[in-house]
Design goal:
Elements (H helix, E strand, L loop, with lengths): L1 H15 L3 H10 L11 E4 L9 H16 L3 E6 L9 H14 L7 E3 L4 H13 L3 E4 L3 H6 L17 H12 L9 E4 L14 E5 L13 E3 L1 H11 L4 E5 L6 H10 L8 E5 L2 E3 L6 H9 L14 H7 L3 H11 L6 E3 L1 H15 L1 E3 L1 E2 L2 E6 L7 E7 L9 E7 L1 E5 L21 E3 L4 E9 L5 E8 L18 E2 L1 E3 L4 E8 L24 E9 L1 H9 L12 E4 L3 E5 L9 E7 L8
Parallel strand pairs: 1-2, 2-3, 8-9, 10-11, 12-25, 14-20, 18-21, 23-27
Antiparallel strand pairs: 4-5, 5-6, 6-7, 13-24, 14-17, 15-16, 17-22, 18-19, 19-20, 23-24, 25-26, 26-27
This protein binds adenosine-5'-triphosphate and magnesium ion (MG).
Length: 579
């Protein structure tokens, strides 16, 4: 797996060269640049309030990729300064997902909350410099006093003395004031056209347990204050983030310029967020889907989370290839979901073992094949890879075929089994001609009959005659194993569920999951399922196969048990993506 990832990353780096971020970085570390001669240092700062989704993969590639390109370092920093929704469950899952994608932060895992003490000291420094003050406006009053374009914001507490501010801030820290009664605000510019600069809040009071700090703190720094300080303390050169932070950059620069950071001042560069149609890429929305039971969990195979995609059968190589090929643009754009599927199909076509499974089984009886006889055929595991070898399947008088591979009264141009119709090929076994069928009282087909040509072993006629019918897949009744197969469609039936004036929950596709039971799989699949290490529930992509003519399917490692095998359809064979 590691080899796979490397190849794709290398190839794309060669073919795409540098993106606009690389160009900035080159300039910065080059002669006369602000980081001349320094080692490039980036960071990936997820907030541990949910699982990573594919949008984060884009950020990971940019953060880790940029560091790698310039021989630098990339930190993993849990941005856990907002205590409300953070959890150690997420902290662990985030690390697992990043490792799965093939990125490694070495020993550079940090927690934003570990800097609380230092961040507090910097706040005190700002107060002493007359650059911050304690404000008694409630959140509602703060909003009402923010002003407007051409109309300055107002705070009656702006001119408090340094001594009073120091005293009040310390007492805020000591828990003397209720939540919402006081904030610490930066003293910047009440008239700024950028509202983020209108004396933004730096600290607020919250009486809440922090997942790492417990009840030690009741004041918490805001992202806009904490983040630049964390970057600066870690020696980050380039703080790469998504476009919504562009408006915050002046504040970022203000903070790093006004506190006594022991190192250089980091530079923030923004890039466009990844958007994909037919899905949402926001933790808040994904969380709602989980918490309100619209999906089975963060790892529901319909989710765009990394754990969901993995359970669906996505490989890390396919996801990285997708993110690398869409490139790093500054302008936001929405990528087709079909392209993500296209990248998976490409990867699985090269690597997935070919097998046969029947999803809607009907029994085909080969009436001239001796009863009690059985034989074995070797099937190529992967025609695109001669080194992939073969595996054995058995054939006998009764085989399962797909219900729609038989039609009693065929529609025009139907090339599959039909009484006295075209000769068809049972994939890899024999040529057969359909002779009829048996129906139950309601007219349902219960058995199909055919005769075979014993001189066509392996699927080719001895006399070289042309086979006009289709090649159909099958599974030997005698050795087949039952399985459940889950077919997935887009989670939303609107291409832009995130769009303005839309409630994304109204856009959910009611047919995004179809569960088929009593499917028939060849014993090879059952064997691999049985042998698969079930102790590792999420760490890797479970085995994925091509079910011939049907698509690519991945063992559902979570719901499969010893005698109940579940497969998820990862992607169909047909490519709807137009290049
Ligand atoms: P969400 O809105 O999904 O909660 P977030 O930005 O709050 O996203 P964080 O955990 O803070 O999530 O994200 C960590 C990093 O990943 C940030 O630098 C953020 O810019 C980046 N990121 C998040 N979503 C995307 C996306 N869709 N495309 C590119 N980068 C993203
Ligand atoms: Mg965030």
């Amino acid at each position: 797996m590691a080899d796979e990832i490397k190849t794709i990353a290398d190839e794309s780096a060669e073919s795409e060269g540098r993106n606009f971020i690389h160009a900035f970085v080159e300039e910065d570390i080059g002669k006369g640049g602000r980081f001349e001669g320094m080692q490039v240092h980036t960071r990936f700062p997820p907030e541990p309030n949910g699982y990573l989704h594919i949008g984060h993969c884009k950020a990971l590639i940019i953060d880790f990729g940029t560091a790698e390109k310039f021989g630098g370092l990339c930190n993993l920093r849990m941005d856990d300064t907002n205590p409300a929704k953070e959890d150690t469950e997420f902290v662990e899952a985030i690390q697992e997902d990043i490792h799965w994608l093939g990125f490694d932060w070495g020993d550079r895992l940090f927690y934003g909350s570990d800097y609380f003490e230092k961040t507090y000291t910097y706040a005190v420094e700002l107060i002493k410099k007359g650059l911050a003050y304690v404000c008694d406006l409630s959140p509602e009053e703060f909003k009402a006093n923010r002003g407007d374009i051409g109309k300055p914001a107002v705070s009656p507490y702006r001119d408090r003395s340094v001594e009073e501010n120091l005293d009040l801030f310390e007492r805020m820290k000591n828990g003397e004031f209720p939540e919402g009664s006081k904030t610490l605000r930066a003293k910047i510019d009440l008239e700024s056209g950028n509202f983020n600069m209108r004396d933004p809040v730096m600290y607020r009071i919250r009486y809440i347990d922090h997942h790492r700090q417990g009840t030690k703190w009741c004041i918490f720094p805001m992202y806009d204050f904490a983040h630049p300080i964390q970057d600066a303390l870690e020696g980050i050169t380039h703080s790469l983030c998504s476009l919504e932070y562009e408006e915050h950059r002046p504040l970022y620069d203000w903070v790093v310029s006004n506190v006594s950071i022991p190192y250089h001042k980091p530079r923030q560069i923004e890039f466009a967020r990844l958007g994909i149609n037919y899905t949402v890429l926001s933790k808040r929305k994904l969380r709602k889907l989980v918490e309100e039971g619209y999906v089975s969990g963060w790892d529901d195979p319909r989710m765009p989370t990394l754990c969901g995609l993995r359970r669906r059968g996505f490989t890390a190589a396919a996801i990285r290839s997708f993110c690398e090929r869409i490139g790093v643009a500054k302008a936001p754009s929405t990528i087709e979901y079909g392209f993500l599927e296209h990248c998976l199909r490409e990867d699985l076509n090269e690597h997935a073992e070919r097998t046969m499974a029947v999803l809607h089984p009907v029994k085909l009886i080969v009436t001239n094949y001796p009863e009690g006889q059985s034989e074995t055929f070797a099937v190529e595991n992967n025609p695109t890879d001669p080194t992939a070898g073969t595996h054995n399947i058995t054939f006998s008088r009764e085989v399962w075929i797909e219900a729609d591979d038989f039609m009693e009264t065929p529609v025009p141009k139907y090339k599959r089994l039909t009484p006295n119709g075209l000769e068809c090929r049972l994939k890899g076994a024999y040529l057969v001609k359909c002779t009829g069928c048996k129906k139950d009282g309601d007219g349902n087909i219960v058995e199909v009959y055919a005769t075979y040509d014993p001189e066509s072993r392996g699927g080719d006629p001895a006399d070289g005659r042309k086979v006009k019918g289709a090649t159909i897949h099958w599974v030997d009744v005698e050795t087949s194993v039952d399985a459940e197969v889950r077919l997935y469609d887009y989670l939303f039936n609107d291409p832009a569920p995130d769009g303005p004036d839309k409630n994304f929950l109204d856009c959910l596709n009611p047919d995004s999951l179809e569960i088929l039971t009593g499917c028939k799989i060849e014993p090879e699949l059952a064997k691999i399922a049985a042998e698969y290490d079930r102790s590792d529930k999420t760490g890797k992509t479970a085995p994925t196969f091509q079910f011939m003519r049907l698509g690519y399917f991945c063992l559902d490692n979570k719901d499969s048990t010893g005698d109940h095998i579940v497969f998820n359809r990862s992607v169909s064979l047909k490519d709807s993506f137009k290049k």
